[in-house]
Amino acid sequence: MNWNDLDFFPVMGEKLTAENTLQLDFTAHNQALDAVNLSDTPDFDRFVFNQLKSGGKKYGIGGYLENRAIYRRSEVFATESANFRNIHLGVDIWTEAGARVFAPLAGKVHSFQDNAGFGNYGPTIILEHELGGKPLFSLYGHLFRKDLEKLQVGQEVRAGELLCHVGPFPENGDWPPHLHFQLMWDLGGNWGDYPGVTAEKGLEFFKGNCPNPNLILGCKILNSI
Protein backbone atom coordinates (compact mmCIF):
# COMPACT_ATOMS: atom_id res chain seq x y z
CA MET A 1 0.00 0.00 0.00
CA ASN A 2 1.35 3.40 -1.00
CA TRP A 3 -0.04 6.01 1.41
CA ASN A 4 0.90 8.81 -1.01
CA ASP A 5 -1.59 7.44 -3.53
CA LEU A 6 -4.48 7.79 -1.07
CA ASP A 7 -6.68 10.86 -0.69
CA PHE A 8 -7.47 12.00 2.85
CA PHE A 9 -9.68 14.87 3.96
CA PRO A 10 -7.75 17.43 6.07
CA VAL A 11 -8.35 16.60 9.73
CA MET A 12 -8.53 20.29 10.68
CA GLY A 13 -10.59 21.19 7.61
CA GLU A 14 -7.58 22.73 5.88
CA LYS A 15 -4.12 21.53 4.98
CA LEU A 16 -1.37 22.04 7.55
CA THR A 17 1.32 24.02 5.77
CA ALA A 18 4.37 26.17 6.46
CA GLU A 19 2.08 29.18 6.17
CA ASN A 20 -0.30 28.21 8.99
CA THR A 21 1.63 25.70 11.11
CA LEU A 22 4.65 25.77 13.43
CA GLN A 23 6.55 22.66 14.53
CA LEU A 24 6.83 22.59 18.34
CA ASP A 25 9.54 20.88 20.37
CA PHE A 26 8.65 19.32 23.73
CA THR A 27 11.86 17.37 24.21
CA ALA A 28 14.39 17.98 26.98
CA HIS A 29 16.57 19.73 24.37
CA ASN A 30 14.14 22.67 24.41
CA GLN A 31 15.59 24.66 27.30
CA ALA A 32 12.68 27.12 27.18
CA LEU A 33 10.59 24.43 28.91
CA ASP A 34 12.72 24.88 32.03
CA ALA A 35 11.01 28.20 32.66
CA VAL A 36 7.48 26.76 32.38
CA ASN A 37 5.48 25.34 35.28
CA LEU A 38 4.12 22.38 33.33
CA SER A 39 1.86 21.38 36.22
CA ASP A 40 0.10 24.74 35.97
CA THR A 41 -2.06 24.43 32.86
CA PRO A 42 -2.59 28.20 32.35
CA ASP A 43 1.19 28.71 32.42
CA PHE A 44 1.72 25.83 30.01
CA ASP A 45 -1.07 27.24 27.82
CA ARG A 46 0.59 30.68 27.66
CA PHE A 47 3.86 29.05 26.65
CA VAL A 48 2.26 27.16 23.76
CA PHE A 49 0.12 29.96 22.41
CA ASN A 50 2.79 32.65 22.79
CA GLN A 51 4.89 30.56 20.42
CA LEU A 52 2.06 30.40 17.91
CA LYS A 53 1.36 34.11 18.24
CA SER A 54 5.03 35.01 17.84
CA GLY A 55 5.24 32.84 14.75
CA GLY A 56 1.99 34.13 13.30
CA LYS A 57 0.64 30.58 13.05
CA LYS A 58 -2.78 29.04 13.65
CA TYR A 59 -1.51 25.56 14.50
CA GLY A 60 1.41 23.98 16.33
CA ILE A 61 2.31 20.42 15.38
CA GLY A 62 4.63 17.59 16.28
CA GLY A 63 5.26 14.73 18.61
CA TYR A 64 5.38 11.41 16.74
CA LEU A 65 7.94 9.22 18.55
CA GLU A 66 9.17 12.35 20.32
CA ASN A 67 10.91 11.68 23.64
CA ARG A 68 9.15 14.33 25.67
CA ALA A 69 9.99 16.24 28.82
CA ILE A 70 6.42 17.38 29.49
CA TYR A 71 5.03 14.17 31.00
CA ARG A 72 6.57 14.85 34.36
CA ARG A 73 3.51 17.07 34.93
CA SER A 74 1.16 14.14 35.56
CA GLU A 75 1.13 10.93 37.59
CA VAL A 76 -0.63 9.28 34.63
CA PHE A 77 2.88 8.76 33.21
CA ALA A 78 5.01 8.73 36.39
CA THR A 79 5.78 5.11 37.22
CA GLU A 80 9.15 3.65 38.15
CA SER A 81 11.91 4.82 35.81
CA ALA A 82 12.03 1.66 33.68
CA ASN A 83 8.34 2.05 32.88
CA PHE A 84 8.15 5.84 32.66
CA ARG A 85 6.11 6.63 29.58
CA ASN A 86 7.57 9.58 27.70
CA ILE A 87 7.67 8.62 24.00
CA HIS A 88 4.69 10.05 22.17
CA LEU A 89 2.82 7.78 19.73
CA GLY A 90 0.58 10.30 17.99
CA VAL A 91 0.78 13.74 16.45
CA ASP A 92 -0.48 16.71 18.45
CA ILE A 93 -2.12 19.66 16.71
CA TRP A 94 -2.17 22.62 19.11
CA THR A 95 -4.80 25.25 18.34
CA GLU A 96 -7.61 27.20 19.94
CA ALA A 97 -10.38 25.34 21.78
CA GLY A 98 -13.43 24.95 19.61
CA ALA A 99 -11.48 24.24 16.42
CA ARG A 100 -13.38 21.76 14.27
CA VAL A 101 -12.02 18.26 13.60
CA PHE A 102 -13.08 16.22 10.57
CA ALA A 103 -12.91 12.53 9.70
CA PRO A 104 -10.03 12.02 7.26
CA LEU A 105 -11.58 8.91 5.70
CA ALA A 106 -14.80 6.96 5.85
CA GLY A 107 -15.39 4.57 8.72
CA LYS A 108 -17.54 3.99 11.75
CA VAL A 109 -17.47 4.83 15.44
CA HIS A 110 -15.66 2.02 17.23
CA SER A 111 -15.83 3.43 20.78
CA PHE A 112 -15.69 6.60 22.84
CA GLN A 113 -15.45 7.68 26.45
CA ASP A 114 -14.29 10.46 28.75
CA ASN A 115 -10.83 9.45 29.97
CA ALA A 116 -10.97 11.90 32.84
CA GLY A 117 -8.05 12.87 35.05
CA PHE A 118 -5.22 15.39 35.05
CA GLY A 119 -2.95 14.66 32.09
CA ASN A 120 -5.22 12.02 30.55
CA TYR A 121 -7.02 12.16 27.17
CA GLY A 122 -10.28 13.59 28.47
CA PRO A 123 -13.10 12.99 25.95
CA THR A 124 -11.87 10.54 23.30
CA ILE A 125 -13.27 9.06 20.07
CA ILE A 126 -11.92 6.04 18.18
CA LEU A 127 -12.99 5.40 14.58
CA GLU A 128 -12.59 2.13 12.69
CA HIS A 129 -11.69 2.21 8.99
CA GLU A 130 -10.63 -0.22 6.30
CA LEU A 131 -7.41 0.62 4.51
CA GLY A 132 -5.58 -1.63 2.11
CA GLY A 133 -7.91 -4.49 3.01
CA LYS A 134 -7.15 -4.36 6.75
CA PRO A 135 -8.65 -2.54 9.73
CA LEU A 136 -7.13 0.79 10.75
CA PHE A 137 -8.21 2.73 13.82
CA SER A 138 -7.88 6.47 14.37
CA LEU A 139 -8.02 8.13 17.78
CA TYR A 140 -9.02 11.71 18.59
CA GLY A 141 -8.22 12.87 22.12
CA HIS A 142 -8.67 16.03 24.26
CA LEU A 143 -12.11 16.93 22.96
CA PHE A 144 -15.25 18.65 24.24
CA ARG A 145 -17.46 16.45 26.43
CA LYS A 146 -20.44 17.49 24.35
CA ASP A 147 -18.83 15.80 21.31
CA LEU A 148 -19.62 12.44 22.89
CA GLU A 149 -23.29 13.11 23.63
CA LYS A 150 -24.89 12.02 20.34
CA LEU A 151 -22.41 9.36 19.26
CA GLN A 152 -23.39 5.73 18.90
CA VAL A 153 -21.11 2.72 18.53
CA GLY A 154 -21.24 1.57 14.91
CA GLN A 155 -22.38 4.95 13.64
CA GLU A 156 -21.22 5.48 10.07
CA VAL A 157 -18.87 8.40 9.43
CA ARG A 158 -18.17 9.90 6.03
CA ALA A 159 -14.81 11.26 4.91
CA GLY A 160 -14.89 15.00 5.53
CA GLU A 161 -17.70 14.79 8.07
CA LEU A 162 -17.45 17.05 11.13
CA LEU A 163 -16.52 14.67 13.94
CA CYS A 164 -15.63 16.70 17.02
CA HIS A 165 -13.90 19.82 18.37
CA VAL A 166 -10.65 20.59 20.16
CA GLY A 167 -11.64 20.83 23.82
CA PRO A 168 -10.76 23.40 26.48
CA PHE A 169 -8.99 22.73 29.74
CA PRO A 170 -9.73 21.33 32.26
CA GLU A 171 -12.31 19.06 30.58
CA ASN A 172 -9.83 17.98 27.88
CA GLY A 173 -7.64 16.22 30.43
CA ASP A 174 -6.28 19.60 31.62
CA TRP A 175 -3.94 20.35 28.73
CA PRO A 176 -3.45 23.44 26.59
CA PRO A 177 -6.00 22.92 23.79
CA HIS A 178 -4.84 20.48 21.17
CA LEU A 179 -5.93 17.41 19.23
CA HIS A 180 -4.08 14.17 19.90
CA PHE A 181 -4.37 12.26 16.61
CA GLN A 182 -3.12 8.67 16.53
CA LEU A 183 -3.35 5.61 14.28
CA MET A 184 -3.42 1.96 15.36
CA TRP A 185 -3.60 -1.28 13.37
CA ASP A 186 -4.79 -3.25 16.41
CA LEU A 187 -6.50 -1.91 19.53
CA GLY A 188 -5.58 -4.93 21.63
CA GLY A 189 -9.00 -5.04 23.25
CA ASN A 190 -8.98 -1.37 24.27
CA TRP A 191 -12.25 0.55 24.25
CA GLY A 192 -12.46 4.34 24.01
CA ASP A 193 -8.81 4.52 24.99
CA TYR A 194 -5.38 3.42 23.79
CA PRO A 195 -1.87 4.26 25.06
CA GLY A 196 -0.71 7.53 23.53
CA VAL A 197 2.71 7.37 25.16
CA THR A 198 5.08 4.46 25.73
CA ALA A 199 8.17 3.67 27.75
CA GLU A 200 11.38 2.94 25.89
CA LYS A 201 11.00 -0.81 26.46
CA GLY A 202 7.69 -0.88 24.55
CA LEU A 203 8.79 1.29 21.65
CA GLU A 204 9.40 -1.40 19.01
CA PHE A 205 5.94 -2.89 19.47
CA PHE A 206 4.17 0.45 19.35
CA LYS A 207 6.18 1.66 16.34
CA GLY A 208 4.83 -1.34 14.45
CA ASN A 209 1.26 -0.95 15.65
CA CYS A 210 0.99 2.85 15.45
CA PRO A 211 1.98 4.17 12.02
CA ASN A 212 3.02 7.78 11.62
CA PRO A 213 -0.17 9.93 11.66
CA ASN A 214 1.51 12.29 9.23
CA LEU A 215 0.91 9.65 6.56
CA ILE A 216 -2.68 10.95 6.74
CA LEU A 217 -2.02 14.55 7.81
CA GLY A 218 0.55 15.16 5.07
CA CYS A 219 2.14 18.12 6.86
CA LYS A 220 5.31 18.91 4.94
CA ILE A 221 7.03 20.78 7.78
CA LEU A 222 7.29 17.56 9.78
CA ASN A 223 10.06 15.06 9.14
CA SER A 224 9.68 13.40 5.76
CA ILE A 225 7.14 10.59 5.52
UniProtKB/TrEMBL annotation:
SUPFAM superfamilies attached to this UniProt entry: Duplicated hybrid motif
UniProt keyword terms in alphabetical order: Signal
UniProt keyword annotation of Signal present: yes
Limits of the M23ase beta-sheet core domain: 87-185
N-terminal signal peptide: none
Cited CDD domains: M23_peptidase (cd12797)
InterPro entries on file: Cell_wall_metabolism_enzyme, Dup_hybrid_motif, M23ase_b-sheet_dom
Gene Ontology terms, MF aspect: metalloendopeptidase activity
Pfam families named among the record's database cross-references: Peptidase_M23
Native species: Algoriphagus sanaruensis
Domain of life from the UniProt record: Bacteria
Protein name: Peptidase M23
